[in-house]
Amino acid sequence: MALEDHRFPCDNCGSDLRFDPGDERLVCDHCGNVEIIEHGPWTQSRAIAELDFEAALKALPDDPVMEVTRVSHCPNCGARVEFDPDLHATECPFCATPVVTDTGPSRQIKPRAVLPFALEEKEAREAMTEWLGALWFAPNGLQEYARKGRRLSGIYTPCWTFDADTKSSYNGARGIVYYEDHKVVRNGRHEIRRVAKVRWTPASGRVARFFDDVLIVASEALPKRFRSGIANWDLTRLEPYLPEYLAGFRAEAYTVELEQAFREARGVMDRQILRDVKFDIGGDRQRV
Questions:
Q1: Cα separation of 217 and 228, whole Å?
Q2: Phi, psi dihedral angles at 274 (to 5 degrees)
Q3: Quick one: which of 202, 210, 219, 197 has its CA closest to 264?
Q4: What beta strand segments (E) does 101-188 contain?
Q5: Closest listed residue to residue 288, CA positions, set 175, 123, 125
Q6: Structure confidence by residue, pLDDT tens digits, 31-79
Q7: Helices and strands (H, E) in the chain, number of each type
């Protein structure tokens, strides 16, 4: 399987083109040439193809769902980031650790969709400056980075999404809270104390739910508390994957494998199904 080439030279001057988030096209910063992305969703309607889970697990290295890319592994934070073929040394975009790029190929499942960048670098910088201004305490390194006006680099974060059509049978119990009055003596005085009791009755049934695009971040470069904060993407804006969207940006390769991601997604589904079961049982309290 050949190494994927995600470079897009300008037809006019030969410089590298980059994806322009503002107008969703490829532009050349050297000569100003503009090229329309061919077969993009705005010129040809295409549905996003999804993969069967079991089939993806069994995919062989030369299967069409696989691709070969050149990936660098950060020894500090563990990020795996794709780099241009002519780049031999750089720094990790997550932790700034110096990295020597790996010239060996990396096989992985090819992306099926992409959520294109929507902000230009100028807009992203303004948003970062506004965010820093609202903080009581900001890391000195981050403030210094912003003051120096260093260029921001956009990076695509990999994610898995899972669909599942579930039907679950359950056996449990429905609890109805009632109260009993008990006479007690406290400090020599007679008092009435109300005690909550629960009357349990058997309950059983069946619930069904279709899960659409349960999203699991496939990167471990960021701490988990930050990963959960970036998982709320607007997936209605997904486009069928084209490498042109990555031109001028970096793309992180996934470090959370498909099976591990499915276990996390199943945990999300299990918790929702449990809520559905408790709602179906009804009452004041539930046992499942």
A1: 8
A2: -60, -40
A3: 219
A4: 105-109, 113-114, 155-156, 159-186
A5: 175
A6: 989 988 875 544 455 568 788 888 888 876 667 778 777 777 777 777 7
A7: 5, 15
| Angle (deg, nearest 10), helices 121-133 and 140-147 | 140
The pLDDT tens digits of the residues spanning 185-211 come to 888 888 888 889 999 999 999 999 999
C-alpha to C-alpha distance for 167 and 208, rounded to whole angstroms = 4
State how far Cα 163 lies from the chain centre.
Answer: 15
Q: Which residues pair with 185 in a beta bridge?
A: 190
Neighbours of 119 (CB within 10 A): 14
Q: Tell me: the pLDDT tens digits for 127-157?
A: 888 887 777 776 666 667 666 667 777 888 8
70 Cβ neighbours under 8 A, 6+ residues apart: 3, 82, 83, 85, 101, 102, 103, 104, 105, 106
**Does residue 261 have a pLDDT over 80?**
yes
What the block records as the tokens of 178 is 């009632």
